[in-house]
């Protein structure tokens, strides 16, 4: 029999303090029942003798001191998982919201997970083809990687994420693939974009959705990514599936974290975010990867909007230090009407070297990547120079590079929202564009590859 | 009597009534016996930082002090190990608990079963004192482990010495210390927060060769020196650290992955056994100790991990070895310090970091140095520290970078603009510095000829001039420059692309010996000088720049170490090439 306490002494922000408690554990799950029968869930942030500080996921609105009752459940927050979760929609705390039957759990798992032992990890090395040239060729994604999208307000990250979720595939064989999607504080319209897109393409059948909308409980967002990742770990390492996890928008998650920290009057770090935000984010992002000897994998694609497009803001900054690269969207490209507006020079995939080349993509991939990026950078430099001095001041070679940069953005980076390019198509476009440059400038391509892949002039 | 928990808040636990509680003693918390360390005492209450996840822990649970400070086990078996922040072998954890690091796993730092062949170097009746060698163990084909008299025993006489195969706990010697007999095994313990003693420290005078051109030639670090690598994410800190671990000419490498990515540690684990030491051809792992506390592992253990690593390093230094510690990243250590400090409700200093951040960082780096080791035979050892710093937003004015810069002598400033232009290692040559250059110059001139230091100074001056000339180019265009200035720009470009740029992934280019570095630099400067003289004699610049020999200069960094002789021919080729242009003009 669980004890109930009617001894709530303080309510502030998302927190309540319960007095005269006995045997309370840190991180324990708590239910607070309001007089009307409404039950809120929370967890213990601080367990002291006779006193517990509890964070309520669904907010404290309506909690009173006189009659609200707190029950300590003697266990940490868990999620009942099962293969039947595929195709279903849940709220941010893992309760079905699609009108379907409740899930009969196959296992109940602690949503916090445990850190994966580095000696048990397998190094990610299988190329995932997303069908987007700016990613596949320039910043390739591999299975088990965590690659965030750094976006800005008003940029088309939902479209890009949906396109990746739809098109992502591994080039060898047919394996079970699943998408786990966690929405934290995004708008109804943005969420709708994903769900409609998943339904339209049939992707919904192998997807699990956790939705916390902008008007949903703020603190619930702290649990949502953990729900999603617990599900993903079950699907990947118990069921052997290849799981792509999309977390959007991590900026809202971090703001919820700051809200709790401020309510606890903790000493703030940069810009008011708590000093432990790095650790907290790492606990989420590090739940990606592969395990030696197990078939499944978790690939993470968190999305965050950079306040003022500033990548030195604490949220993108700390994220970048944990994740294995980043895909940065550019407002400039977006304004020029280029979709997807991926800033190829600033984006980075740290695991690319192990995922590309002969047998994985194509032998010329690394060379093409290097040459395209060098030529594009040079073209952009020429463009800057042309702005200052006028195009006539450029040397003839620089003018070639400028034309190349324009063509690169127009034909290589830009593609349709439904255009699914194979890596061969992508590389061939790259070769076609490089053919306009003087051959003596193509220093990063080997003679063998030049002979084999470079389209002949006029051809 | 046992104490009991009165409060749990994340990694911080407050307990009451621990008998004999002392600062920095290790305690066992709760039923699972979670490992913690006392970091504050207020009357009867002790604040404890717990090295494992505290979820599910509550008031009323017991706390027992071990009456011992946080210590590491030292002895044969350290090399090739991979430890978490408090010296638990990760493979042993995996064997016990599976793929995840769960709580309450209790495994010793050194294998208790394994036997090592102990070869004594002293005889019965010999007088010995702290630090004296008792015998040796071939720990790996690369490392001979030297078993020493523990630092707390002095003025002893060997009463018994054994030889043969023993586990680390079995006695190998009995010493008679002032009438009392002390048994000595190969296993020693040492508290991590205290530096191991040396006889005396020495100034660093020998370079730590890394095979990285920008480091060895321009911003060298000495054996026993300290360096820091600050840089925003994506600027290649980790690759530089890995390159140093691979190629630095030390006997032992201790690599501390402090709060970094799990996959990165896996990469090290998979790659190091495959890579071979350039001097011996043996796998690099045979001289490496790894301490891995990834970012998702408990935060308090992250704080301890750098101390665990450096204590192991000191132990090998005491044997008379050159040891290098790579700490990636000290910012994560500082953040762990901040997190604990915040939970203790201490008054914060800058950006929430505790006021003692700078003094703790200084105390850590000061454990480096070249030293005369204690005991006989007389020997020198050195401990060099290279710490990566991850400044938020690449802002070098932040507290961790500033606290580090005040203490370290070498600064390799990584620049994300260079990284974006795919210039690696992205060490900015205008920002970086090394305070060891003047100390090391006599070593360089004795070993590699007097031109070395002069060439470095000239090359840096050319690069500095390039920065100024580029300002002009940006304002008024390249046509405003004189041919001589344009030649300077070309030479600077050549320095950047053919010398400073070094591919970590290219078989040959990954490592460049000092003699080859000397040669490459002198080739580039020799072209500059001769072309400069030709310009003055009226030769057209474009003809000089069009010389086919320049293509060869650009490729010279790919010349394998074994064929270094061909570079002399190249240098001679420059003379004839330039003379040819002069002749025409």
Could you please describe the fold and organization of this structure?
The complex is a heterodimer of chains A (459) and B (585). Chain A is α/β, with parallel strands linked by helices. Chain A folds into three domains: 4-76, Beta Barrel (Thrombin, subunit H); 79-354, 3-Layer(aba) Sandwich (Rossmann fold); 365-453, no CATH class. Chain A contains 13 helices and 22 strands. Chain A has helices at residues 133-136, 157-167, 188-200, 224-238, 250-263, 277-285, 314-322, 331-335, 352-355, 365-389, 396-413, 423-434, 447-453; strands spanning 4-5, 8-12, 15-19, 28-33, 39-48, 51-56, 69-76, 78-81, 88-91, 107-110, 121-122, 127-129, 141-142, 149-151, 169-170, 177-186, 207-213, 242-248, 289-291, 297-305, 325-328, 348-349. In chain A, the strands form four sheets. In chain A, strands 9, 11, 14, 16, 17, 18, 19, 20, 21 and 22 form a ten-stranded mixed beta sheet that branches. A seven-stranded antiparallel beta sheet of chain A has the order 1-7-4-5-6-3-2, with no helix packed on it. In chain A, helix 2 runs parallel beside helix 3 (188-200). Chain B is α+β, with helices and mostly antiparallel strands and 585 residues long. Chain B contains 16 helices and 26 strands. In chain B, the strands form five sheets. In chain B, strands 8, 18, 19, 20, 21, 22, 23, 24, 25 and 26 form a ten-stranded mixed beta sheet that branches. A six-stranded antiparallel barrel of chain B has the order 1-2-5-4-3-6. In chain B, strands 12-11-9-14 form a four-stranded antiparallel beta sheet, with no helix packed on it. The longest helix of chain B has 26 residues, at 451-476. Chains A and B meet through strand 5, strand 11, helix 6, helix 7 and helix 10 of A and strand 1, helix 1, helix 4 and helix 6 of B.
Total number of beta strands of chain A: 22
Distance between the ends of chain A: 82 Å
Largest interface: A-B, 71 and 64 residues
Which residue ranges of chain B are poorly predicted, with pLDDT under 50 across at least 5 consecutive positions?
none
**CATH hierarchy: architecture of the largest domain in chain A:** 3-Layer(aba) Sandwich
Q: Which secondary-structure class do the elements of chain A indicate?
A: alpha/beta
What share of residues of chain A is helical?
25-40%
CATH topology of the largest domain in chain A: Rossmann fold
- What sort of overall outline of chain A do the alpha carbons produce when their principal axes are compared? elongated
Number of domains of chain A: 3
What top-tier CATH class of the largest domain in chain A fits best? Alpha Beta
Helical residues, percent of chain B = 25-40%
Reported for the largest beta sheet of chain A, the result is: 10 strands, mixed
Number of helices of chain B: 16
Rg of chain B is 27 Å
Q: Can you count the beta strands of chain B?
A: 26
